[in-house]
Protein backbone atom coordinates (compact mmCIF):
# COMPACT_ATOMS: atom_id res chain seq x y z
CA UNK A 1 0.00 0.00 0.00
CA UNK A 2 1.30 3.43 -0.89
CA UNK A 3 2.12 5.87 1.87
CA UNK A 4 -0.51 8.48 2.70
CA UNK A 5 0.34 11.80 4.36
CA UNK A 6 -2.48 12.00 6.89
CA UNK A 7 -1.21 15.35 8.15
CA UNK A 8 -2.89 16.81 5.07
CA UNK A 9 -6.16 15.05 5.86
CA UNK A 10 -6.69 15.30 9.59
CA UNK A 11 -6.95 18.51 11.63
CA UNK A 12 -3.75 17.48 13.43
CA UNK A 13 -1.10 14.83 13.09
CA UNK A 14 -2.43 11.31 13.30
CA UNK A 15 -2.35 10.19 16.96
CA UNK A 16 0.30 7.76 18.01
CA UNK A 17 -0.85 4.18 17.65
CA UNK A 18 -3.39 4.93 14.91
CA UNK A 19 -2.85 3.16 11.61
CA UNK A 20 -4.23 3.43 8.09
CA UNK A 21 -6.25 0.34 7.18
CA UNK A 22 -7.36 1.38 3.71
CA UNK A 23 -7.37 4.38 1.43
CA UNK A 24 -8.74 4.86 -2.05
CA UNK A 25 -10.82 6.84 -4.51
CA UNK A 26 -14.06 6.28 -6.42
CA UNK A 27 -13.87 4.49 -9.76
CA UNK A 28 -14.69 7.32 -12.15
CA UNK A 29 -16.71 5.24 -14.63
CA UNK A 30 -18.88 3.81 -11.87
CA UNK A 31 -19.20 7.30 -10.38
CA UNK A 32 -20.34 8.70 -13.72
CA UNK A 33 -22.98 6.01 -14.09
CA UNK A 34 -24.34 5.90 -10.55
CA UNK A 35 -23.76 9.34 -9.06
CA UNK A 36 -23.98 11.52 -12.17
CA UNK A 37 -26.60 9.25 -13.78
CA UNK A 38 -24.84 9.03 -17.14
CA UNK A 39 -26.86 5.91 -18.01
CA UNK A 40 -30.10 7.84 -17.64
CA UNK A 41 -28.77 10.66 -19.80
CA UNK A 42 -27.71 8.20 -22.50
CA UNK A 43 -31.14 6.57 -22.51
CA UNK A 44 -32.85 9.98 -22.70
CA UNK A 45 -30.91 11.16 -25.74
CA UNK A 46 -31.28 7.82 -27.52
CA UNK A 47 -35.05 7.97 -27.05
CA UNK A 48 -35.16 11.59 -28.15
CA UNK A 49 -33.10 10.80 -31.26
CA UNK A 50 -35.46 7.95 -32.13
CA UNK A 51 -38.49 10.17 -31.56
CA UNK A 52 -37.09 12.97 -33.73
CA UNK A 53 -36.17 10.54 -36.48
CA UNK A 54 -39.64 9.05 -36.50
CA UNK A 55 -41.68 12.24 -36.15
CA UNK A 56 -39.65 14.49 -38.44
CA UNK A 57 -38.98 11.68 -40.90
CA UNK A 58 -42.72 11.06 -41.18
CA UNK A 59 -43.42 14.71 -41.99
CA UNK A 60 -40.33 15.84 -43.90
CA UNK A 61 -38.68 12.69 -45.13
CA UNK A 62 -36.03 10.24 -43.98
CA UNK A 63 -33.11 12.58 -44.65
CA UNK A 64 -34.55 15.33 -42.46
CA UNK A 65 -35.36 12.84 -39.73
CA UNK A 66 -31.84 11.40 -39.82
CA UNK A 67 -30.31 14.89 -39.64
CA UNK A 68 -32.43 15.73 -36.60
CA UNK A 69 -31.45 12.44 -34.93
CA UNK A 70 -27.77 13.13 -35.56
CA UNK A 71 -28.07 16.60 -34.02
CA UNK A 72 -29.80 15.13 -30.97
CA UNK A 73 -27.13 12.45 -30.56
CA UNK A 74 -24.39 15.07 -30.93
CA UNK A 75 -25.89 17.03 -28.05
CA UNK A 76 -26.07 13.78 -26.10
CA UNK A 77 -22.39 13.02 -26.70
CA UNK A 78 -21.50 16.49 -25.46
CA UNK A 79 -23.57 15.99 -22.31
CA UNK A 80 -22.04 12.57 -21.64
CA UNK A 81 -18.57 14.01 -22.17
CA UNK A 82 -19.25 16.71 -19.60
CA UNK A 83 -20.56 14.20 -17.07
CA UNK A 84 -17.55 11.94 -17.66
CA UNK A 85 -15.19 14.87 -17.12
CA UNK A 86 -16.93 15.84 -13.87
CA UNK A 87 -16.81 12.23 -12.66
CA UNK A 88 -13.10 11.93 -13.51
CA UNK A 89 -12.27 15.21 -11.76
CA UNK A 90 -14.33 14.20 -8.74
CA UNK A 91 -12.52 10.88 -8.56
CA UNK A 92 -9.07 12.43 -8.92
CA UNK A 93 -9.69 15.01 -6.19
CA UNK A 94 -11.32 12.60 -3.72
CA UNK A 95 -9.54 10.53 -1.10
CA UNK A 96 -11.19 8.20 1.40
CA UNK A 97 -9.16 6.98 4.37
CA UNK A 98 -10.11 4.35 6.96
CA UNK A 99 -7.87 4.19 10.01
CA UNK A 100 -8.13 2.19 13.20
CA UNK A 101 -9.99 5.10 14.85
CA UNK A 102 -11.78 7.15 12.19
CA UNK A 103 -13.07 7.66 8.68
CA UNK A 104 -11.70 10.62 6.75
CA UNK A 105 -13.10 12.04 3.52
CA UNK A 106 -11.33 14.62 1.37
CA UNK A 107 -13.73 15.81 -1.31
CA UNK A 108 -14.23 18.83 -3.55
CA UNK A 109 -12.97 19.63 -7.06
CA UNK A 110 -12.29 23.36 -6.80
CA UNK A 111 -12.23 23.76 -3.01
CA UNK A 112 -11.22 20.68 -0.98
CA UNK A 113 -13.32 19.92 2.10
CA UNK A 114 -12.16 17.57 4.85
CA UNK A 115 -14.54 15.49 6.97
CA UNK A 116 -13.03 13.79 10.00
CA UNK A 117 -15.43 11.21 11.48
CA UNK A 118 -14.18 9.31 14.55
CA UNK A 119 -15.81 5.92 14.96
CA UNK A 120 -17.49 7.19 18.12
CA UNK A 121 -19.63 9.42 15.88
CA UNK A 122 -20.67 6.58 13.55
CA UNK A 123 -23.90 4.83 14.53
CA UNK A 124 -24.02 2.24 11.74
CA UNK A 125 -22.65 1.37 8.33
CA UNK A 126 -23.96 -0.53 5.35
CA UNK A 127 -22.76 -1.48 1.89
CA UNK A 128 -24.17 -1.98 -1.58
CA UNK A 129 -21.95 -3.90 -3.99
CA UNK A 130 -22.65 -3.62 -7.72
CA UNK A 131 -22.14 -6.29 -10.36
CA UNK A 132 -18.83 -4.76 -11.48
CA UNK A 133 -17.35 -5.03 -7.98
CA UNK A 134 -17.57 -1.34 -7.15
CA UNK A 135 -19.97 -0.23 -4.45
CA UNK A 136 -21.23 2.38 -2.02
CA UNK A 137 -20.52 2.28 1.73
CA UNK A 138 -22.67 4.86 3.56
CA UNK A 139 -22.31 5.54 7.28
CA UNK A 140 -25.02 6.92 9.57
CA UNK A 141 -23.83 9.54 12.05
CA UNK A 142 -25.17 10.29 15.51
CA UNK A 143 -28.04 12.77 15.95
CA UNK A 144 -25.68 15.59 16.94
CA UNK A 145 -23.46 15.09 13.91
CA UNK A 146 -25.08 16.60 10.82
CA UNK A 147 -23.51 17.41 7.46
CA UNK A 148 -25.54 19.16 4.76
CA UNK A 149 -26.39 16.97 1.78
CA UNK A 150 -25.11 19.57 -0.69
CA UNK A 151 -21.79 19.70 1.13
CA UNK A 152 -21.41 15.95 0.67
CA UNK A 153 -22.80 15.31 -2.81
CA UNK A 154 -21.95 13.19 -4.68
CA UNK A 155 -20.31 11.51 -1.68
CA UNK A 156 -23.62 10.90 0.08
CA UNK A 157 -26.17 8.11 0.19
CA UNK A 158 -28.70 8.84 -2.57
CA UNK A 159 -32.07 10.28 -1.58
CA UNK A 160 -31.23 10.64 2.12
CA UNK A 161 -31.88 14.39 2.20
CA UNK A 162 -33.35 14.84 5.67
CA UNK A 163 -30.69 12.76 7.43
CA UNK A 164 -27.69 12.83 5.05
CA UNK A 165 -25.27 9.93 5.30
CA UNK A 166 -21.67 10.34 4.13
CA UNK A 167 -20.73 7.56 1.75
CA UNK A 168 -17.69 6.07 0.13
CA UNK A 169 -19.09 6.13 -3.41
CA UNK A 170 -18.26 3.64 -6.14
CA UNK A 171 -15.09 2.34 -4.49
CA UNK A 172 -13.35 -0.61 -6.20
CA UNK A 173 -13.50 -3.97 -4.38
CA UNK A 174 -16.25 -2.59 -2.17
CA UNK A 175 -16.90 -5.88 -0.38
CA UNK A 176 -13.34 -5.98 0.98
CA UNK A 177 -13.48 -2.32 1.99
CA UNK A 178 -16.77 -2.89 3.81
CA UNK A 179 -15.25 -5.82 5.68
CA UNK A 180 -12.22 -3.73 6.67
CA UNK A 181 -14.47 -0.95 7.96
CA UNK A 182 -16.64 -3.45 9.84
CA UNK A 183 -13.62 -4.96 11.57
CA UNK A 184 -12.31 -1.50 12.47
CA UNK A 185 -15.66 -0.43 13.92
CA UNK A 186 -15.95 -3.62 15.94
CA UNK A 187 -12.39 -3.34 17.24
CA UNK A 188 -12.86 0.33 18.14
CA UNK A 189 -16.07 -0.41 20.05
CA UNK A 190 -14.25 -3.00 22.13
CA UNK A 191 -11.29 -0.71 22.87
CA UNK A 192 -11.93 1.42 26.01
CA UNK A 193 -9.22 3.92 25.00
CA UNK A 194 -11.13 4.83 21.84
CA UNK A 195 -13.99 6.50 23.71
CA UNK A 196 -11.71 8.37 26.08
CA UNK A 197 -9.52 9.76 23.30
CA UNK A 198 -12.32 11.07 21.09
CA UNK A 199 -14.23 14.16 22.18
CA UNK A 200 -17.88 13.68 21.21
CA UNK A 201 -21.21 13.66 22.99
CA UNK A 202 -22.56 10.93 20.74
CA UNK A 203 -22.41 7.42 22.24
CA UNK A 204 -20.67 4.77 20.21
CA UNK A 205 -23.32 2.39 18.95
CA UNK A 206 -21.34 0.25 16.55
CA UNK A 207 -22.94 -2.69 14.76
CA UNK A 208 -21.30 -6.10 14.82
CA UNK A 209 -19.52 -7.33 11.75
CA UNK A 210 -22.57 -9.11 10.45
CA UNK A 211 -24.55 -5.89 10.18
CA UNK A 212 -22.45 -4.62 7.31
CA UNK A 213 -24.96 -5.56 4.68
CA UNK A 214 -24.18 -6.46 1.10
CA UNK A 215 -26.84 -6.38 -1.55
CA UNK A 216 -25.70 -7.57 -4.95
CA UNK A 217 -27.30 -5.34 -7.56
CA UNK A 218 -27.04 -5.10 -11.27
CA UNK A 219 -25.46 -1.98 -12.69
CA UNK A 220 -27.89 0.87 -12.21
- State the end-to-end distance: 30 Å
Mean model confidence by pLDDT = 82
> Can you write the helix and strand succession as a string?
EHHHEEEEEEHEHH
Q: Count up the helices.
A: 6
Number of strands: 8
Major sheet size, sense and barrel closure: 4 strands, antiparallel
Protein structure class:
alpha+beta
pLDDT < 50 stretches: 196-220
Q: State the strand order across the main sheet.
A: 1-2-3-4
CATH architecture of the largest domain: Roll
The overall number of domains is 2
Query: How helix-rich are the residues, as a percent range?
Result: 40-55%
Radius of gyration: 21 Å
- The shape, in one word, is elongated
Q: Per CATH, what is the topology of the largest domain?
A: PH-domain like
CATH class of the largest domain: Mainly Beta
Beta-strand share of residues = 15-25%
Blueprint (SSEs and pairs):
Blueprint: E1 20-24, H1 28-34, H2 38-60, H3 62-92, E2 95-99, E3 102-107, E4 113-118, E5 122-125, E6 128-129, E7 135-141, H4 149-152, E8 167-171, H5 174-190, H6 192-197
Antiparallel strand pairs: 1-2, 2-3, 3-4, 5-7, 6-7, 7-8
Helix pairs in contact: 1-3, 2-3
Describe what this molecule looks like in 3D.
The chain has helices at 28-34, 38-60, 62-92, 149-152, 174-190, 192-197, and strands at residues 20-24, 95-99, 102-107, 113-118, 122-125, 128-129, 135-141, 167-171. The chain is an alpha+beta fold and 220 residues long. The chain has two domains: 19-26 and 96-211, Roll (PH-domain like), CATH 2.30.29; 33-90. It has a four-stranded antiparallel β-sheet with strand order 1-2-3-4. A hairpin with a 5-residue loop joins strand 6 and strand 7. It is elongated and about 75 Å long. The two termini are 30 Å apart. Residues 196-220 have low confidence and may be disordered.
